[in-house]
Design brief:
- α3 crosses α4 and α8 (191-205) crosses α10.
- Helices cover 37% and strands 10% of the residues.
- It is built from ten helices and five strands, in the order αββαβαββααααααα.
- The model has no long low-confidence stretch (mean pLDDT 92).
- It has two domains: 2-120, no CATH class; 129-240, no CATH class.
- The chain is an alpha/beta fold.
- It has a five-stranded mixed β-sheet with strand order 2-1-3-4-5.
- The structure holds iron/sulfur cluster (SF4) (2 copies).
- Residues 157-163, 218-221, 223, 225 line the site of one iron/sulfur cluster.
Length: 267
C-alpha cells in the first residue's frame, strides 16, 4: 500500500496526472472511491480485500473527466474495463495511467495499454465459484424451469438502476429506459417491464461485459443479474471468439462482420 501511496504522490507532484482514482476509507471503516488531486492526500489511498468496486465506472463520468488526466487503481477487472473502453473509443491510451494490482495483490504500473494487453495474456480474474455453481445449475434446468427461475428473480427488481449506475460499460448519456418519447420500457416495476429492462440490458452488454460482477454486487435485491451478462459473454466467446477487455482495438462483437460469416444475408 505504501508503494501505491508513494507513486500516487510522485505522479501528482510531477503533474504526470491530475487525479488518482482509488479507494479510501470512510469514517466507519468502509471502503469508498476517492479522487485524489493533491500530493499530500495520497496517504488517504488504501488497497486491501475490501476494495472490490470496479473503479473503471468513473472513467467516463463527466465530473471526473473534468479533473484532467487520471491514474486509476485497477484490479484485473478494472484493467479489462480500461481496454474495453478504449476499444469503444471512450478512453485513449495516453489519457489514462493504469496503476494495476495483480490477482496476487502485487502493484504494477502500466505505461501503455499494450503493456496491459500483454499482462492480460497471463489470464483474467476467475468467475467466483458460487456464480459458476449457479450458472451450472441453471444450465441443467429445462427451458420452462429456467423461465420460471428468472421470472421469480426479476419480479424482485424495483428498477432502482443501481446495476446500471455501477456498470462501467453502461456509459450512455441517456439510457433507453429513461426516454418517454417514445416510451420504450414501462417506468413502474411490473412483470413485463422488468423482463423488458433486463433483456435489453443483457443484450446491450453482450460481448462487452468484462465479468466484473459489479452489477450483481450493487443490486439491493440480490438478484444475480450479472449471470445474464456472464452468459452472454460466454456465448460471444463461443460463437464469435470474442472476449471483452483483452484488447484495446477489438472490434465491437455485435456490430462488426466478416465476409466469411456464416449468415447468408452478409454474402
Ligand atoms: S459484470 Fe455487470 S457491471 Fe461488470 S461489466 Fe458486466 S454487466 Fe457491467
Ligand atoms: S440493481 Fe437490482 S433492483 Fe435495482 S434495477 Fe438493477 S436488478 Fe433491479
Amino acid at each position: 500500500m505504501e508503494e501505491l501511496r508513494n507513486r500516487a504522490k510522485q505522479l501528482l507532484e510531477a503533474k504526470t496526472v491530475d487525479v488518482v482514482i482509488g479507494y479510501g476509507e470512510t469514517l466507519n471503516n468502509k471502503i469508498k472511491a476517492v479522487f485524489i488531486r493533491k500530493p499530500e492526500d495520497a496517504v488517504k489511498l488504501v488497497y486491501d480485500e475490501r476494495c472490490t468496486q470496479n473503479l473503471g465506472v468513473y472513467l467516463t463520468k463527466h465530473e471526473v473527466k473534468h479533473f484532467g488526466k487520471p491514474a486509476i487503481v485497477a484490479s484485473v477487472s478494472t484493467m479489462r474495463t480500461v481496454l474495453q473502453l478504449c476499444s469503444e473509443k471512450q478512453v485513449k491510451d495516453d489519457g489514462v495511467l493504469v496503476l494495476g494490482v495483480t490477482l496476487e495483490g502485487k502493484f504494477l504500473e502500466f505505461p501503455t495499454f499494450k503493456t496491459v494487453e500483454t499482462f492480460m495474456e497471463k489470464g483474467v480474474q476467475p468467475i467466483p465459484a458460487k456464480d459458476l455453481e449457479l450458472m451450472a445449475k441453471i444450465e441443467t434446468m429445462s427451458l420452462d424451469e429456467r423461465w420460471a427461475f428468472w421470472q421469480e428473480e426479476l419480479q424482485k427488481c424495483t428498477k432502482c438502476y443501481a446495476c446500471r449506475a455501477s456498470c462501467p460499460m453502461c456509459y450512455c448519456n441517456r439510457c433507453m429506459v429513461d426516454y418517454n418519447q417514445p416510451q420504450w420500457i414501462s417506468v413502474p416495476s411490473t412483470e413485463i417491464g422488468n423482463l423488458e429492462w433486463h433483456l435489453m440490458r443483457a443484450m446491450h452488454l453482450a460481448g462487452r461485459c468484462v465479468n466484473c460482477g459489479e452489477c450483481g454486487r450493487a443490486c439491493p435485491q440480490e438478484i444475480p443479474i450479472h449471470l445474464l451478462t456472464f452468459k452472454a459473454s460466454e456465448e460471444a466467446q463461443n460463437q464469435f471468439g470474442a472476449v471483452a477487455g483483452l484488447s484495446s482495438t477489438m472490434p465491437s462483437t455485435l456490430s462488426s462482420w466478416k465476409p466469411n460469416d456464416k449468415e447468408n444475408f452478409i454474402q
